[in-house]
Amino acid sequence: MMRWFLIILGSCVLATNALGQAHTRLKRDEQIVFYPSLGVLKPDGSCEIEIRGCVYERESRWLALAALRKALGLADIEMSPAERRVFADRARLFLVDHEHGKQIVARVGGTNLPVASTDADGWFGSIVRISAPAPVHAARDGIEIEIEAVLPPADQRVFKGSCLLLRQDGLSVVSDIDDTIKITEVLDRKAMLRNTFLRTFKPVPGMAALYQELARSNHAVFHYVSASPWQLYQPLAEFVVSNGFPAGSFHLKKFRWRAESFRSLLAGPEKFKLSVLESLIERCPRRRFLLIGDSGERDPEVYAVLARKYPQQVVGVWIRDVTGESREAERYRKAFTGLPESLWQVFRDPAEIRKTPF
Questions:
Q1: How far apart are CA 212 and CA 209, in angstroms?
Q2: Is the full-model pTM beyond 0.70?
């Protein structure tokens, strides 16, 4: 019900712009980051667009940096100069003041839309509808639409984001990130923290080539889903691009750091992933979904739940083995009971996957 209320709110923009605020008003030290989102082409010719992001003020708080290091369990780890630089860069969006009560106005497809006000953590988000021009409907699946903050004329700064627009049908590849396409070693907590906060991200060999093949052969659109916090979006997005993975939407966890809240950051991701993926599948009831993950956490169990709930849409489940369990392991047999044997595969090397058109 709330989602549709927000859509209706966005569609009333022409009336509200004449009476209400027409700009996003920020102080000079406040900034906006738009997180990449999804839009869906609707049968009536409109686009259902999700707009989300946060407003924050940068802070130079070296004491907070030390507190963050302690909260992560990195205080006793001796860092090299290179690791210190990586940590300072990745920590910077954890150490900001989030600004609440900011009314966001965004321009999408030539239309100014009042999106939402930021909450106590500086976050905003809503789903709006706009009319889609004919060229958009004629374009390939996965076209990007630009989102830009509408600022007063005197404010010359530019804050932009993008929305990945999906057709009603087509193939979507949902990909986990940690230990599926990026070496994280989630089963070793110290290694996981080093690989997440101190080291240059390294790709899983062969996965970028596999994804590029799916993009070519099946015209697939990609969605990268992880319980990593949104504060790590920029390095993760750079990792995807620099290592040859197809561009796509990102779906990460909302998180505002407090020392006591890191337990939720490091907690199991299954509830988060299930919620995100159910929402994605239900927004696109005619699309097909290939789900790719790994055995390090609960991807097989989460994907099996989705395959049972959406049997007409989930067309494949591929699990990268990082735990040394064969396809015959009790875990897999229990998770995939009753599902077609041909639906799911377990692999170590991407070359092992039996590739078929979807």
A1: 5
A2: yes
